[in-house]
Design a protein that fits this description.
The protein has about 250 residues and is of the alpha/beta class. It is about 35% helix and about 20% strand.
Length: about 250
Amino acid sequence: MKYPFEIEVCCDSWQSTQIAYEAGVNRVELCSGIGEGGLTPSLGLIQLVMQKLAIQTHVLIRPRSGDFLYSPEEIEIMERDVEACRNMGVHGVVIGFLLANGDIDVNLTKRFISLAGHMKVTFHRAFDMCKDPIKALEELKELGIDYVLTSGQAAKAKDGESLISELVKKSDGKIKIMPGSGVRAHNLEELMKNTQAPAYHMSARIKTDSKMEYKKTSVAMGAQSLDDEYKISTHSLEDLKLAMSLVQK
C-alpha cells in the first residue's frame, strides 16, 4: 500500500530496527554513532536486518564524524562499504560530500551514484552544511539523487520549515525532500502541513532499563552520566504507530 507520505526511522541497533519494523514504517536508515551525527553501522547489523526483517533498508555511509571533506583513503573506505551494501541486497545508501568551498562535490557524488547501482541514494544532512542550498538542490536533481535529507539548514526541521517548503516547491517532483532532525510524532502533522514534503526522517527514542543485575556505579563507559550507563536507547512503538497513523490519513 502506498501512503501520501513516507516515514523513515533512524535505527542504530537491532532492537530499534525491530520496533520500527513492528510499527510498519516505510523504511529504516541503519547507522551507528547517533551522538556524532551518525556513522556507518556494523556489517553484522546490516546482514541481520536484511536476513530477518522484510523492510526497506537504507544504510548510512559515513566513516567518521566531523566535516564532509574526505581524504582518498576515507573515500576508498566508503566505496568498499557501498559495494558491500550492494552485494547484500541493501535497498539504499545515504551519502554526502562537500568541497572545501562549501559546494556539493558533484563529481564524487556522481561517482557514488554509479557505484550504488540499483540502490536508492539519499544525500544526507551534509546538505545542511553547504553554502547555497538552492544551487545544491539543482545539482542533486541533475545527478538523479532520490532523496535529500535536510533540516532546512537549521538545528531542527521545525525551525527550517521555510527553506524546506521552498526546496519542496523547487524539487519539481524529481527529488524527494525529506525533513529530518527533531521530527517526532508530536510535531509530524504540523511539519507535514507546513512543508508538504513527501517523506520524513524521524525518531521516537526512549531509554529502557538494562537487565544487568550487578551495576558498577563508579565507572562510565561513554554515557554522559552514570545514571545513563545502564540505559538502552531504542524506540517507542506507540509513537511510531502514531506517526504511521498520521501519514495514512
